[in-house]
Specification:
The structure holds 3 protein chains of 3 kinds. By secondary structure, chain A is of the alpha+beta class. Helices cover 43% and strands 24% of the residues of chain A. Chain C is 42% helix and 15% strand. Classes of the chains: A alpha+beta, B alpha+beta, C alpha+beta.
Chain lengths: 135, 1277, 186
């Protein structure tokens, strides 16, 4: 389990639609915005890389001090971003894949407006469980 | 080679890495120069830069080329040493602070939008002081001993012509051991070319002495190393140096000391020529010479294969030499430092190939020796040389990186150099447009020294901005980082600038934490600078920080309110997000012709009211027209549809406020904002608007309307519904424009209602669905009377069946009387109207039976027109301050939650008003608990016709014990009587909760003369019996009947019961509460259409001696069906099967065994004589009898039986055939048919398949064939 | 003479035209979503769905009777059985179970363990109170009305509201007698 891990889902137009602090370390106040800053900045890098490669999982594309950003770009250019300080890439990869599954389910929900916030508590619990499992 | 200064880096290198000339003046010289406000070096500096000094140079390999640009660095010998760290740090800090103050001016302008930035070219927005800062930074690490380009190439010895014995001065100037450490420690060659300068001040007199000394110098130091320099030939100031060459180099010199005061044109020219000569005639040739010499040495020792081998072997030889002796292992004489010097000189003379080759050579050596600092330095130079040579970018960058990392590796001592190297590297990358990488390098430069890192990060951010594709988010992020660092070393202004630029990226971002962070800090910093208005602008962005954690929210709010109160001015913020106004909850209650008694009544569906009022009010449409065409006379047409409210009556508005935060916020003086405009002439919105905004703010009681004000405290996350009201004073048009509240005393938030929005909501919402106009506009009409109505002491929870007397009070507040009142009650079963006479009669005594049934008819007729409206007596006119009281009878009919609706319709006296009538609607909810559960079971009496046994089952399901009082059969056609007294069923008269009781009564059709319809169940003697034929009991019973109506009750004769019980009320000397329970339509019809009874004398005493005994038996046959029936009775003489069984007399009766059977003592069982059986009897008389029997009629047939001996006889062998005539096919639909069928099946008959009209049953001692015949069956009877 | 009713619709289901389940689900979802946007009140949407279902039902019943050779049921119990076992299977691909009969046999519950309509669906807070599958109740109501049974159908349980199954209470209000239009004798 990573001591800090901040997971966010960024919609196509760069709006965060889901965010969760899934780290084991008890989160500090300033951590919240710092993580957001890092991830937000990392979007620039994603923007470059996303079109160069066909792979969905872009591992550790950006780093800040000891924090690494890994991204999973879905076909709809929704970005699942994870800020982590742990190193098991395949764990993160499978985490992304499973979350992607969940996200697709959410997307298929006709009552869910694409690009709007993901408020489903079920989704939230699932994601946290996955984080505990993989990261 | 292109213009060497085509990139920033080149420019930088060309004036950083240039030959250094060490200057050693005498104090007198300085003093002379200071007349001009200049030191000697300063005086010369402007002329050390040559743009086209045209000096021919030849490379080591004798290639001639001409040096165009050239620069000298004049440095005092005392300055030729590594500058002190602290000092430099201070200086840099100073630089930054100055820059900050310069920026101060535009700090408060709106940050330029990111588009313009990204399009504009670099210098527009990158602060100019960065270059300066970088230069300073590079300077701070100069004169290190590991690199030679800072080593002086020449030495300038200056002596004033006034010095006495100048020659010796020259000598001991150089010999004085104030020489820089570089020379003393032997890092460089101490014997450097010297230039002896004699400075002559023309104010000291003519130059003969000077020239004399010069001559003297010439023959001591050699001819061409001596110079004469004359200055201060101007007598007094005010020269015109246009432009003043010194200002550029001394920016912080105040203009009053005008520089070069005493230098006239000639002096300046002389200075220029002097420096030019020195450089071109002495320095450059010397360097060239040196290069040549060194080159030969190097090539002699190192070039060539043999030397390589030797070198390697030799180095291996001193492999084992300890590391730390590298400190001084390279004296100037050592080959390495010579190579280094060679390289640097070559570099400075732009002979880059030479420099490069030497650097290459050197770097391997240093590497082998693990002399890392020097290695790094060489790598650095290699990188630069590659760059200058404009070849192999990759190599250049590789070298720079190599150098950078190496510098970092050797720890603190290398830090400064690392930074310098980094800066050059960055410039290199910038030059080739790799801004992203440049930013990365900047990021790496930023060390632990916060201030410097801040600057570096900021530069990095600008690099991101220049990167292609532009990387705005990185830009913002790094700006934020540097801003934080600036803030850490309290450079607030820089911090703000950084953040403000970042804001152009993060403006309107949906990344909540980012937005909060930026705005919060900027706000704080502006506040700390005292710019509260700007601070406020930012703080407002973060008031609704619901996503933040509680401590953060508290922090935000604390700062917010601090700044707010510091600003000291009041803000009016539209759509302030704290608290959030839930507009969908907006609910406006206006009372036009409908007035509501209670808020509960408001929320009732309009349809219910309309249904209730439809026959009272003049039908809605024409009611509308009545007051609308009245309006149309005095109103513009467009107002026709607008809602109506009455002057002086409150217009209630409910709206929900939601607190997004987790902490409680008090909001005060929540009030509506309204606009008033008179009807005619056409209202001008503007004037009314601003006039009423005043009202909206200060709740001043204007003549137009008054607003209510409430203060709420919203707990964390809670939503509260604020109930506001506005009371229009005079006629006109009132418009509710919005709601406003005070977050603190100086922060006013308001929210404007959009009409269309509201329309949508409300028109979909409950009331006013049919009105399609703007829900916020109200037509204020002149004040009307308004009835207040309350039902006195209406209980909220009662037990079912409880009967109470209430009273309705109607009050009229205005002085216009109202008349012509009507009332309608939704549940007459629960509530109906007593007649006004019985107001003062005491309850429940009024229920008791009087002999004189005087006003019965009145009550009856109230029951008759029960469904319709109750009209108040015509003469009732309710004036001001007299209340009209109307008695009401209340009875809790059924358990459960009941809501009673009650509307009162009344008309207004004067016809002038817009509305002629109004209605008062009241709504009462009450909970009815179950109490007694009464059920009746009627079965025909076995022994007698027309008599029934009634079993009454009473269960007390309530929580209190009840006392039974009376049971009555309503109406006059049945009379009831107890079979056994109630006392021995319940010795204590009252039923405790949960107790069940069943009593048996006898019920018979009353004969007309006297009817005993009431049974006193009460304890002890007969109390006053209530009259069930008078109001209110009879009325309630009427409704009970209606409500308990069942489907097929018309077929049967039914009886209604009313059980009256009472409960001791909690308080003493209070009459007990009366309960009445009604059971209606208890059917007395038997299961069979025909039934009969064979009866005769039970005991006959007869003397058998003379003759046989004949006994007359009477068979009574009753046809309770609605069809005529024909009946045949057959008697058989010989009973099938000898059958005597005493005691079993069931056969005498019909076989439907009522559960009351065991209780009813069979008439015979009194004397059960047991005798041995005897020969059977014979029937005498006609053996078959035919009877026709009409519907619902009874007949009697006489049968005669003859017995021969005493005994007990079972006269059970007869058969009775009956058939209903003409019930035919309708039989199928007959209610009784099915029942008959079921009944037969139940009592063991089986249906014969052959003839479906016939039932057969075998009893033990009894054989009866009942044949059911009808025309359908077509039997021949 | 009890009619030979196919006790399960599998046979029929086997040879009816199929459509991709997700397409079906999403199509229905799109309808509901559109309704929600058009008439912003959840109650309205419920009504509308029911009405649509009704219109489907009154057409569907003929199709149903034609395809599945169901002869007429003797009583309401049988009807309910047929709906649950044959009808649902035939059109929805799932079978419901019939339970909770009241004693006079006019009210029962159809219980759907799984319901293809609600795959992926999760009710957001904004549309609590929405009966997502309200169209089903409408269908049943309409179909039964065509065979002269006035019914009242209410949702007892709803998986979208956290229950463990879908329970649809069918209450027979009145049975309109189909009278033979001619006289017996001639």
């Amino acid at each position: 389990m990573a001591s800090t891990a901040c997971f966010m889902i960024i919609s196509k137009n760069d709006i965060p639609i889901y965010e969760a602090e899934v780290g084991s370390a008890l989160k500090k106040e300033e951590a919240a915005h710092q993580h957001q800053f890092i991830l937000h900045a990392a979007l620039d890098v994603v923007q470059d890389l996303a079109w160069t490669t066909s792979a969905m999982f872009l591992k550790s594309i950006d780093r800040f001090n000891d924090l690494v950003v890994s991204v999973y770009v879905t076909a709809g250019h929704t970005r699942l971003m994870l800020l982590h300080d742990s190193r098991n890439d395949d764990g993160i990869k499978s985490f992304f894949q499973e979350v992607h599954e969940l996200y697709i389910k959410i997307l298929l929900n006709p009552l869910y407006l694409p690009g709007s916030r993901v408020t489903s508590s079920h989704f939230d619990t699932k994601v946290r469980a996955l984080a505990r499992k993989y990261i | 080679m292109a213009d060497p200064a085509y990139s920033a880096l080149r420019k930088m290198l060309l004036d950083e890495i240039t030959p250094v000339v060490m200057v050693l003046p005498t104090p007198l010289v300085e003093e002379r120069c200071q007349k001009n406000g200049l030191s000697f070096v300063q005086m010369l500096t402007p002329f050390c830069v040559f743009n086209n000094i045209d000096v021919p140079v030849r490379t080591a390999s004798d290639q001639p080329y001409r040096l165009q640009k050239f620069k000298l660095r004049m440095v005092y010998a005392s300055d030729v040493r590594q500058p002190n760290v602290e000092v430099t740090k201070e200086r840099l800090k100073q630089v930054i602070t100055d820059a900050g103050n310069i920026e101060d001016s535009d700090l408060y302008l709106e940050p330029s939008s990111i588009e313009t930035i990204s399009t504009s070219s670099q210098p527009d927005f990158v602060p100019t002081w960065f270059q300066f800062f970088n230069k300073e930074f590079v300077r701070s690490v100069s004169f290190s001993d590991h690199e030679a380009f800072d080593h002086p190439v020449a030495c300038l010895l200056v002596v004033s012509s006034n010095d006495k014995d100048p020659i010796n001065k020259f000598v001991d100037l150089f010999n004085m051991n104030q020489l820089p450490p570089l020379l003393n420690e032997g890092a460089m060659d101490p014997k450097i070319p010297k230039v002896f300068v004699l400075l002559h001040d023309n104010q000291d007199g003519s130059s003969e002495r000077a020239s004399k000394i010069l001559a003297e110098m010439r023959n001591t130091f050699g001819a061409n190393d001596c110079r004469l320099l004359c200055i201060n030939s101007l007598q007094d100031g005010a020269p015109a140096h246009e432009p003043n060459p010194w200002e550029f180099y001394m920016p912080n010199a105040s203009p009053d000391q005008n520089l070069g005061r005493l230098l006239n044109k000639e002096d300046v020219d002389e200075l220029r020529d002097f420096v030019r000569d020195v450089s071109s005639k002495d320095i450059i040739p010397n360097m060239e010479q040196r290069i040549r010499v060194l080159n030969q040495q190097v090539s002699a020792t190192r070039k060539g294969f043999r030397n390589q081998i030797k070198n390697l072997w030799w180095r291996k030889g001193k492999e084992d030499a300890p590391e730390n002796q590298t400190v001084n292992m390279y004296t100037f004489s050592s080959i390495e430092s010579q190579i280094r010097v060679l390289g640097d000189y070559a570099f400075m003379l732009r002979d880059y190939e030479l420099a490069l080759s030497n650097y290459r050579l050197l770097s391997t050596d240093y590497k082998l020796d693990k002399a890392w600092k020097r290695y790094a330095g060489v790598q650095e130079m290699m990188g630069l040389t590659y760059f200058m040579l404009n070849q192999s970018k990759k190599d250049a960058e590789y070298c720079m990186e190599n150098a950078f990392t190496t510098y970092l590796r050797i720890g603190t001592s290398g830090k400064g150099n690392a930074t310098r190297c980094g800066l050059w590297w960055v410039e290199m990358l910038k030059a080739t447009g790799q801004y992203k990488e440049a930013a990365g390098v900047y990021f790496r430069i930023s060390g632990e020294e916060p201030l410097h890192s801040a600057v570096m990060l900021e530069q990095a951010s600008y690099c991101y901005l220049l990167a292609k594709p532009i990387m705005l988010r990185k830009y913002g992020f790094h700006l934020i980082l540097s801003g934080d660092l600036y803030n850490k070393c309290d450079q607030i202004k820089h911090a703000i600038r950084a953040y403000r630029n970042a804001l152009s990226v993060f403006k309107g971002t949906t990344w909540s934490h980012i937005r909060d962070h930026v705005h919060f800090h900027i706000g704080q910093w502006y506040a700390s600078l005292g710019r509260f208005d700007v601070a406020m602008k930012h703080m407002l962005e973060i008031v609704a920080c619901s996503h933040q954690s509680q401590p953060m929210q508290e922090l935000f709010m604390k700062n917010f309110f601090q700044i707010l109160q510091k600003t000291g001015k009041t803000y009016k913020i539209p759509r302030l997000q704290l608290p959030i106004v839930n507009i969908s909850s907006l609910n406006i209650v206006s009372e036009d012709h409908r007035t509501y008694g209670s808020p509960a009544a408001v929320s009732v569906k309009e349809s219910i009211w309309q249904h209730l009022e439809e026959e009272m009010v003049p039908s809605l449409t024409n009611a509308k027209t009545t007051w609308l065409d009245l309006q149309s006379k005095l109103l513009p047409n467009k107002l026709k549809q607008s809602n109506v409210c009455v002057a002086g009556e409150a217009l209630k508005v409910e709206i929900a406020f939601k607190n997004p935060l987790q902490l409680s916020i008090p909001i005060s003086s929540v009030t509506l904002m309204c606009e008033y405009s008179p009807n005619e002439p056409q209202p001008d919105a503007s004037s009314s608007a601003n006039q009423t905004v005043e009202d909206g703010k200060t709740n001043s009681d204007t003549s137009f309307f008054t607003l209510s004000e409430v203060d709420i405290t919203l707990e964390g996350g809670e939503t509260t519904l604020a109930e506001l009201s506005v009371v229009p004073r005079i006629e006109g048009r009132l418009k509710v424009t919005g709601v406003s509240w005070k977050l603190s005393d100086s922060m006013i938030g308001y929210y404007n209602f959009e009409p269309d929005l509201i329309k949508k909501r409300i028109s979909k919402g409950r009331r006013k669905a049919k009105q399609t106009t703007n829900k916020l506009e109200f037509l204020v009409i002149k004040s009307l009377p308004r009835l207040e109505g309350i039902i006195n002491n209406l209980p909220t929870t009662v037990y079912a069946g409880n009967l109470q007397r209430l009273s309705l009070q109607l009050k009229n507040s205005s002085d216009i009387p109202v008349k012509n009142l009507k009332m309608k009650i939704s549940h007459p079963r629960f509530l109906n109207i007593g007649n006004p006479e019985t107001v003062n009669v005491d309850f429940p005594a009024c229920l008791e039976k009087q002999k004189t049934s005087s006003n019965k008819d009145k009550d009856i007729d109230t029951t008759k027109k029960s469904e319709s409206v109750f009209h108040f007596p015509e003469d009732t006119v309710i004036h001001k301050e007299n209340t009209f009281v109307l008695p009401l009878w209340f009875r809790a009919a059924t358990p459960g939650n009941v809501s009673l609706y009650l509307t009162v319709y009344y008309e207004v006296e004067d016809k002038s008003t817009a509305m002629r009538y109004r209605t008062l609607r009241t709504h009462h909810i009450l909970e009815v608990l179950p109490s007694l559960d009464v059920s009746f079971n009627i079965s025909p009496c076995p022994s007698k016709l027309q008599e029934y046994i009634v079993r009454m089952d009473v269960i007390n399901k309530g929580l209190k014990s009840l006392k039974l009082r009376q049971l009555s059969s309503v109406g006059s056609e049945w009379q009831i009587s107890l079979i056994e007294s109630i006392q021995d069923l319940i010795p204590s008269g009252n039923l405790v909760p949960g107790q069940a009781l069943s009593a048996f009564l006898k019920l018979k059709i009353a004969n007309k003369t006297e009817t005993e319809t009431d049974v006193w169940l009460g304890h002890g003697g007969g109390g006053a019996v209530f009259d069930t034929r008078r109001a209110p009991l009879v009325n309630f019973h009427h409704y009970e009947q209606l409500s308990q109506k069942t489907s097929r009750q018309e077929h049967e004769s039914t009886v209604d019961f009313m059980l009256i019980s009472e409960m001791e009320s909690e308080t003493e000397n209070q009459p007990p509460q009366i309960f009445s329970h009604h059971a209606c339509h208890c059917s007395v019809s038997t299961k069979r259409p025909i039934w009969w009874l064979l009866d005769g004398p039970k005991i006959i005493h007869y003397n058998f001696t003379n003759s046989l005994c004949e006994t007359k038996l009477k068979m009574t046959i009753h046809n309770s069906s609605s069809f005529p029936s024909s009946i045949t009775i057959n008697t058989f003489d010989s009973p099938p099967g000898t059958s005597i069984s005493s005691g079993n007399k069931v056969g005498w009766h019909d076989m439907s065994s009522t559960p009351s059977e065991p209780r009813v003592p069979p008439p015979e069982s009194a004397k059960a004589v047991v005798l041995e059986s005897v020969p059977p009897f014979i029937w005498t008389g006609s053996s078959t009898t035919h009877v026709k029997l009409g519907p619902n009629s009874t007949t009697e047939v006489w049968l005669l039986v003859t017995t021969f001996a005493p005994g007990t006889y079972d006269l059970s062998n007869y058969s009775l055939h009956w058939s209903l005539v003409g019930c035919g096919d309708v039989r199928e639909k007959e209610g009784w048919y099915l029942e008959f069928d079921n009944f037969m099946k139940k009592s063991g008959f089986r249906r014969r398949e052959v003839d479906r009209g016939c039932y057969v049953k075998n009893l033990r001692s009894f054989y009866i064939i009942l044949e059911l015949k009808g025309d359908v069956v077509g039997s021949d009877t | 003479m009890a009619p030979a009713v196919p006790r399960s619709g599998d046979a029929i289901f086997a040879n009816v035209e199929r459509v991709n389940a997700e397409l079906f689900t999403l199509t229905y979802g799109a309808i509901v979503r559109q309704l929600l946007t058009d008439l912003e009140e959840v109650e309205e949407v419920n009504k509308q769905l029911d009405q649509m279902g009704y219109n489907i039902g009154i057409r569907l019943i003929d199709e149903f009777l034609a395809k599945s050779n169901v002869t007429r049921c003797v009583d309401f119990r049988e009807t309910a059985e047929v709906i649950a076992k044959v009808g649902f299977k035939m059109f929805l691909g799932v079978t419901a179970s019939v339970t909770n009969w009241d004693n006079e046999g006019t009210c029962c519950s159809l219980i759907l363990e799984d319901n293809p309509l609600v795959d992926f669906v999760e009710l957001p807070d904004t549309c609590q109170g929405l009966y997502y599958c309200n169209i089903l109740s409408g269908v049943v109501r309409g179909a039964l009305e065509m065979v002269s049974m006035k019914t009242e159908i209410t949702w007892i349980r709803d998986m979208l509201r956290g229950d463990d199954a879908f329970e649809l209470q069918v209450k027979l209000l009145k049975q309109v007698p189909e009278e033979y239009p001619y006289k017996d004798d001639e």
